[in-house]
Structure formats: structure tokens, C-alpha cells
Amino acid sequence: MLKIMNVLFFYLVLITRNCFAISTVGDANIDNVCGIENLENCSHFDIENSNIITNELKRSLESYVPCSDDDDNNCKCYSEVIKNDLKPYQKGITQQMLNNTAKYGTRYKILNHQLFRDKECMFPARCSGIEHFLLNLLPELPDMDMVVNTRDWPQVVTGFRE
Predict the structure, then answer these.
(1) pLDDT score at 162
(2) How many Å apart are CA 4 and CA 160, to the nearest integer?
(3) Which 3 state secondary structure label does DSSP give 120?
(4) H/E element holding 106?
(5) Most confident of 11-20, 48-57, 98-107
(6) Is 115 helix (H, G, I), strand (E, B) or coil?
(7) Cα-flanking dihedrals φ and ψ of residue 144, to 5°?
(8) Which of 88, 150, 73 is nearest to 118 (CA)?
(9) What whole-number distance in Å separates Cα of residue 156 and Cα of residue 10?
(10) How high does pLDDT run on average in the chain?
(11) Is 41 helix (H, G, I), strand (E, B) or coil?
């Protein structure tokens, strides 16, 4: 799977490079654009950068070794990463920690098999999706209080403390 992603990334870089070249040319005449099909319009710098990126991506693809087999259902490859990520919470998550992080996401509570959510949700469609799955699991879930990051980027640094 990762190899496929690397190949897609390789082509994305090539496409982006050509789009950038097109978008930076002031002349509307497409014949004057630096691109793979039209290298005579490229500066030495453009060609050198393209070769560096292409060679680096090829080298990356050739040296890629998968972390585990496709049939690694236990995700053994990532178990150490997961353990390290969870180390700050070995002693549990306190109410104070939860309160401090609530402003960085959407807070959900399950109480007596009922689901509650903060009124504010930055992306309502995401909250609806989360609620869809939680509601299906509700009969089996214990009472809990949690904060879910519904944003596009990490909100809390690793090992966040009070």
C-alpha cells in the first residue's frame, strides 16, 4: 500500500511541478511554457530541480522495504509507535486533562447509553459522521467523556500535560 502511495506521490510531484511552471509564466502562449513535452523552454535550474526530485523519488521507491506483510492483522509493525504515543497516559487521563483539551476539539459524553455533544462543532458533517458510528455502538459503550479532534490538523502536541 505504501509503495502505491509513493508512486502516486511521485506523479503528483511531477504534475505539480508542471502546473507551477504553467502558473508562473506570464505569457498566455502555451508553447513558451517549461514542461516535460517542451524542455527547450526550461532553464537549466528547472531541469536540474526536476532531475533531482525525480531521482530522489526513484531512489526512494527502489529502496522501499515494507514494515510488515499485507496479512499483518495485528499491526505489529506499528506497535512500538502506538506504545510510545500512549506513554504519557499510562497513569490514566484525569478530568483536568480532559477539561484542558476540550477547547481543541469536540467534546462528547455518553451517559446511561445516551450521547451528548457540545453545541459548537467546527465541521458539522464530521460531527454527524462521528455521531452515526457512536449511536450504532451506544448500547455497548460504557459511560464516558471524550474529546475528538474534528479539525484538519493535530491540535495537541504529543505528551500534552496540564
Answers:
(1) 45
(2) 34
(3) coil
(4) strand 106-111
(5) 98-107
(6) strand
(7) -160, 165
(8) 150
(9) 31
(10) 76
(11) helix
State residue 4's pLDDT score. Answer: 59
CB–CB of 101/156 below 8 Å?
yes
Q: Which residue has the higher pLDDT, 35 or 80?
A: 80
Confidence band (pLDDT; 50, 70, 90) for 115?
very high
Q: Using one digit for the tens of pLDDT, what is the confidence trace for 135-149?
A: 999 999 999 999 999
Closest Cα partner for 34 from 21, 51, 52?
Answer: 21
In the three-class reduction of DSSP (H, G, I as helix; E, B as strand; rest coil), residue 7 is classed as helix
Residue 114 is placed in which grid cell? 445516551
Q: How far is the CA of 159 from the CAs of 84, 100, 150, in angstroms?
A: 10, 13, 19
129 sits in the region (left: phi over 0; alpha: psi -120 to 50; else beta) called alpha
147 CB-contact burial (10 Å; exposed 0-12 / middle 13-18 / buried 19+): buried
Q: Which pLDDT value is given to residue 139?
A: 94
Cα–Cα distance between 58 and 6 in angstroms, integer? 9
Task: Based on the residue annotation, tell me whether 152 is a catalytic residue of this protein.
Answer: yes
